[in-house]
Structure to design on (118 residues):
């Protein structure tokens, strides 16, 4: 099993940027399907972006063109670069890991708060 620890959240003004990191340890990171979900108060958890073991990416329509997901297999880390942040991006962001895109969730991070002020 992969253990995940997120960092990089915080408070930023609208239009600003943040970079989230998800450090993985334990099993074979490079083969895992990774990604980010977020959950805003009173709302369901939603997929933000994901990335395959070979680097193919997928994004929610709401973040396309603003967010970029990437991974560094040498450092066992997944990143989420968030630019042009909006108040509606405010949420707790969770990193996840799956063995394959269609498998169940193997691991979740503890979550990191992102707050965007208007």
């Amino acid at each position: 099993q992969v253990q995940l620890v997120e960092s990089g959240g915080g408070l930023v003004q609208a239009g600003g940027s943040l970079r989230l990191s998800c450090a993985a340890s334990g099993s074979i990171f490079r083969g895992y399907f990774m990604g980010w979900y977020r959950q805003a108060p009173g709302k369901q958890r939603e997929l933000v972006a994901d990335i395959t073991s070979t680097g193919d990416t997928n994004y929610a329509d709401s973040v396309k063109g603003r967010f970029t997901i990437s991974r560094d297999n040498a450092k066992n880390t997944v990143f989420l670069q968030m630019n042009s942040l909006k108040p509606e991006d405010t949420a707790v962001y969770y990193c996840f890991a799956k063995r394959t895109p269609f498998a169940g969730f193997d691991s979740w991070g503890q979550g990191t708060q992102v707050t965007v002020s208007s």
Observations:
- The mean pLDDT is 94.
- The two ends are 39 Å apart (CA to CA).
